[in-house]
Design goal:
This protein is mainly beta. The chain has no helices and 14 strands. A four-stranded antiparallel beta sheet has the order 4-5-6-7, with no helix packed on it. Strands 8-9-10-11 form a four-stranded antiparallel beta sheet, with no helix packed on it.
Length: 153
Amino acid sequence: TSASHNCGLQIWDSRQSVDRCCSILQVENDIACLSIDVFSETKLIACGTENGSLVSFDSRNPSEPIFMKHKLHSGPIHTVRFNSLGTKVASGADDTKIFITDVTDQQESKMVESEHKDYVRGLSWKPSPSQAETKAEYILSGSWDKTLKIHKL
């Protein structure tokens, strides 16, 4: 899967020997998809857009988004990441915020207090560091403010 400033999201099939692009999606009219993540077990694709929206597609039937959170962020989303179960998507953006969106019930997204002073450009989910906290989830964030933060959810 690839995204670019041409406002399209392309799904590639590496099994094809020629012309491997099998789907071209338009996320929104004239809105570029800046960041993508694919959860291969469920074939879900998450896309962060330049207008701050978070969009999810099923790669097996990509004609319509599964859900769209319009303008979740007040700036472009440059990083999106599924958790290890594929049930939540973290998004980070130019507005210095991090949101966690549950893709199973599409309820209200929850904001994480990032304490970043500049654009959020990297996110990674980490499991609990100890057996005592088996239900805890952590998200790591990196920013242009030259800091890395660990957030317990």
